Each structure stands twice: as C-alpha cells, then as structure tokens.
Amino acid sequence: QLHSDQDKGDGSLKYILSGDGAGDLFIINENTGDIQATKRLDREEKPVYILRAQAINRRTGRPVEPESEFIIKIHDINDNEPMFTKDVYNASIPEMSDVGTFVVQVTATDADDPTYGNSAKVVYSILQGQPYFSVESETGIIKTALLNMDRENREQYQVVIQAKDMGGQMGGLSGTTTVNITLTDVNDNPPRFPQSTYQFRAPESTPLDSPVGRIKANDADVDENAEIEYSITEGDGYEVFGITTDKDTQEGIITVKKALDFESKNLYILKVEATNTHVDPRFLYLGPFKDSATVRIQVEDVDEPPMFSRPAYIMEVKEDVPLNSIIGTVTAQDPDAAKNPVKYSVDRHTDMDRVFNINSGNGSIFTSKPLDRETLLWHNITVIAAEINNPKQSSRVPVFIKVLDVNDNAPEFAMFYETFVCENAKAEQLIQTLSAVDKDDSYNGHQFSFSLAPEAASSSNFTLQDNRDNTAGIFTRKTRYNRHETSTYFLPVVISDNDYPIQSSTETVTIRVCACDHRGKMLSCNAEALIHPTGLSTGALIAILLCIIILLVTVVLFAALRRQRKKEPLIISKEDIRDNIVSYNDEGGGEEDTQAFDIGTLRNPEAIDDNKLRRDIVPETLFMPRRTAAARDNTDVRDFINQRLKENDTDPTAPPYDSLATYAYEGNGSVAESLSSLESVTTDGDQDYDYLSDWGPRFKKLADMYGSMDSDKDS
C-alpha cells in the first residue's frame, strides 16, 4: 500500500502506477493506494519487477510529491520438475566389461532458483536396469554393475533413470529418461565344428581347382570376430587338395590341386583346422581359438580316355626312306581297371596330304608318300587313341617328325650367268666369276668343284679355273674375238659336290661378244643388241586382251537388255489403266441433265478407234483392222452387247486377254419395270399409284406423296 503525507482522506489525491506490468499484472487503487497483482506470477518467466508510483492532485493533475520507485521480487517455490536434455539416450559398451565401466552420463536441469532452498537440487537414481547397471546420484554417470555380461546371452538393455529435485526428499518433483544400452561384440568365442568327421566323394575326372565339398565351423561372435581361416594341417592328401575360405559364408571350400587317379589312390584323409583371424589377447584364457575336424574324401572311378606314355613324341626319318617304312611307335593304355583295348588313328586335319599313316593296333607310324626335306623339314601331326568299346573316350598326342637330309640335290648356279667378252680381249683374261648353291644340308659345309664339260674342254675358246673356295673363274683362251663371226658362246660347266652319293649338274654360261673401248667398257654387242624390235611386252599384250574381252562382254549385255526391254509391259504405273475400263462414279444430274453420258455412243461403232492398239504390251503380229457393222439407232443396248460378244468370240484376231467393260445399264429385268419417265408412253393422269402401298415400308413416303395427289384429283 502506498500513502502520501498530503493525503487527508478527503479524496483530493489520486494515486497512479507505472513501470513493469503496471495496469496488466499490477493495478493500484487510486483512492487508497493499494497495489494488487491481477494474476499468478512465475519467477521463471520474470523474477523482478520495477514499478513507479506518484500521488497527484485530482483537480489540477499536478503531483503533490515526487515520484517514488519500488522493486517487487518474486520468491521462488518448487513448481518445476527436473527435465533431461534428451528423451532417449543410446549407448554401447563391449561385452565382458569390468564392473564400474563407464557407459554414458545423463543430465537433467531444474528451472527453479538454485539459490533459494533445494528446489533446483537434483538427485539421480535408477528405476529400471538393475542389477546390470548403476548411476551416480549427483553426476548422472551410468556404469556397469555386473561382471562378464555376455552379448551372446543378451545384447540389448533398457535402463530408466529418474532425476528428483529437493535433494531427493519427500515431496520433490521428478522426471525420467530412457537409456538404451547395447553390448558390442568381442572375440570371446572360439570357432567350433558341429561334427568331428566329414565325408565327400569326388570323381577322378574332377578338374583342377574344382570344389569337392564345403565345411563350416560355427562362431557365436559377429563381424570380424567371427572371421575364420581354414587350413589343412595333416593327412595324406595334403598336396592333392587345398582349402579356401568363402568370405561371405565363412565356409571352408575344399578344392582339387592335383589330378585324381582312382587306380592309384581312392581314399584321402585330411585334418582341417579352423582358426579365428582376429584374436583378442584378453580372452586367451577362454581356450585356443581354433578347432579341427577330419575330412574323408572318396575318389570315384570313371571311364577315362587312354593315356599316352609321353606328352609328346619326336621322331626322325630320312627323306629317301622307302614308302611304308616304320618311323616310330606311339603307345597308349586305358588307365581304368578294365584295360580296354585301344585303337590308333591320325588326325587328318593335321596331315591333309596323308603323308603318314598309323597301324590302328600297335601305334606304328609309317610313311605313305615320299618325303622331301627341302620342301618341308618338320611334319607336325596329331595321333588319336580311342577305346574300341567306347570311341568317345579318346585322347590326343602331338607327334613331331623331322625329315633328315640325304644328298639328293645336285648343286647349281647361284644365279643365271650371262656375261660378255670384248672383241679386243687378251688371252687369260678373267671375264666372269661363278658360284653355286645346294639345297641339301651339309653339317661340315658344302665343297663344290667346277669343270668344263668333256665336250667343251678341248674345243672351247674359254678356260675354267676352280678356285677351291666354292667359286670358279672363266678366262679367255685366245687374244681376239669377232662378233660378226660368232656373236654368242654357250659354255657348259659341270658342278659337283663332295657328299655321298656325289651329285653333279651341268649349267650353261652365255657369253656374248661385244665391242669395247680401250678400257674394256662395253660399247655395243651384235646387231640384235643394237637394233631392238619394236614389239610389245607380254604385260601390254595381256592388258590389250583384257580390254577387248571387257568390251565384248559390255556389248553382249547391252544387246540382251534391249531385247528383254522389248518384252516388258509398257504400262508400269498403277495409275495407268487401259482405255476399255470406264468407271462411272458420279451421280449425274437426273433426268433433266442433257449433258450426261450419251448411251448412243455404245450403239455407234464408228466412234471406236479401230487402229488403237494395246498399250500394255508390244504386239507381236499386227492384224488388219476389222470393221463392224453399224447398229441400228433403235437397237436395244442388250442386243448391242450380245452382238459384240458374239463377234469377238468368233473373231480369230481378237486379242487373247480379258477385257473389263462397265455399262451403267439396268436392263428390263426389274419386276417393277423402270422407275424413270424416259420412254414412258403414259401420262401422270393415267397412272394408278395404289400399288406403291404394297411395296412395303421403304416406299411408304412415295406412296403417301402420290396417294395424296390422287386424293386431290378426286376432290
């Protein structure tokens, strides 16, 4: 309550209020100065209000005292419960954690005044989650309270925490929150095989790296803690089989590393071990993190193809060997216990010329055609061995046959020699050096000897000197030569080798006599060399002949096309039609249309152009035009058409093709006769239209029209 010393109680003063909440939260009695609150105050919204009050003269409105200020403080009461910062908390800890391991810290706040009483003092407690977890009352830290919590037994926990003010005393307000706690996995479980022995079967024909079977060790852990590595530690199949891990299923896949053979070994026993790849040292006390199992693999017998004694055969044969000579033998056997007999054959795709053949019973390979090392040194063929009882079971082996050389080729000149000698040549002058080659092979190198043929040794104008280095020189025997007497000399030379048997050949050297200058440079040879005939070369003659052949072929094709074009139809377009096809597709102008089609044209044969021929083909034979008698003017169209039809049927010159003629003529076959007034011999007054009523509903309109006309006349 406010009171002024100037207030005498006569009502001459008036109290007014201003400031925070004046007139809204706070009002003042202007007569008595009492200040009242209009509604409930909340300290958490505004804890302090500053107001100003003044007393004024009611009549003049002037203040009688200075304005006074006063402060209203709101005292706190416990009207707010603690609120957690999150509605739900999520946390995780590793399984098997020690007691007191930190999990998560929860926090709750109270909006009440912490400086006034215990309204804002919060205490935490656990309502749900014991005995697994505990919470510190003052800090809200949640910790583990139970030892060796196992994820494999229980993975999820839900803990409810309460926060209560007033220090947890009776009457305090409280709030709760939920904490979801998940146990994460650790590698505390070793792998274990569900059974101690596994058995598998594998055909002996199983390809390498093919799976034989799968085994799996169970591990209660997850993710990387459950990863397993499989290995073969012992057993007689340690080198024959291998095992790998399927990363998706954590299974051990047993595969074949070496070829299986039922006849050699039909049972393998392996010891397979499964080991965790990520071992936690903290849990080694739980035992070794591995397990082992025994795997028995039974090899099954299958019908196998024959097997050759070698993967490949190499044989040698001399090129002069007689036909049907055996050059070697291949051997194959059936590896199965039945030991089925085997037959041999040569794959003809590898011996297209059938140079070799094979004995189907014993595998002996022999020649069937002559051999020539100079043509083909190596022959690579394939021999097939198949079971007689089951030819589908077959195998192949390559056979490499080398043809050995024999001295069956005589040496010959390394090139064609054509040399010249000057007319002024001196005796013993070298004019040409000769060399030779031999197709045969020589391990120690070729050694050739050169000599003149016996028939030319004494009478020749030239001499031959063997240089003993596989070359020879031709020398002049006399001083001068005359090209007008002898223009060309042919010198036979015998070349022999030193191999066994000795082979020799006679080659000819052409020597032309030419005119030379004083330095021995050729100027001209005989007259044939000076005056060359102006003939054409072989290539030019072939080109001319080809041009003539092409020209003849072009002319023949052109003539054939022209002849074929004469027989082709002249009318090709679909839009083009024959003159005797007339289409009537217009309605016309009715009875009063005098410009319509004149049917009299059909009766007038003069209007037809007799000389008009067919346009679709070229006529083979032209007949004289045939005149047709003119029809009478009063001839009926039906008679006219029958007359023309009869004439064409009896006419031998009529074209042998179908004609289509369209005539817009009804004829006189209608039961109702013609509805047109053309050629009508009666008048409308003579007509009786009562019969129209008998024609049915289609003519009802017409019967009404003409029936009404009769009624009008009668009236």
TrEMBL record:
Cadherins are calcium-dependent cell adhesion proteins. They preferentially interact with themselves in a homophilic manner in connecting cells; cadherins may thus contribute to the sorting of heterogeneous cell types. The chain crosses the membrane at residues 540-561. The keyword Calcium applies. This is Cadherin-6. Its main location: membrane. InterPro entries: Cadherin (IPR039808), Cadherin-like_dom (IPR002126), Cadherin-like_sf (IPR015919), Cadherin_CS (IPR020894), Cadherin_Y-type_LIR (IPR000233), Catenin-bd_sf (IPR027397). Residues 4-84, 85-193, 194-308, 309-413, 413-523 form the Cadherin domain. GO terms for cellular component: adherens junction; catenin complex. It comes from Acrocephalus arundinaceus (Great reed-warbler). It is found in: Cell membrane. The lineage of its organism: Eukaryota, Metazoa, Chordata, Craniata, Vertebrata.
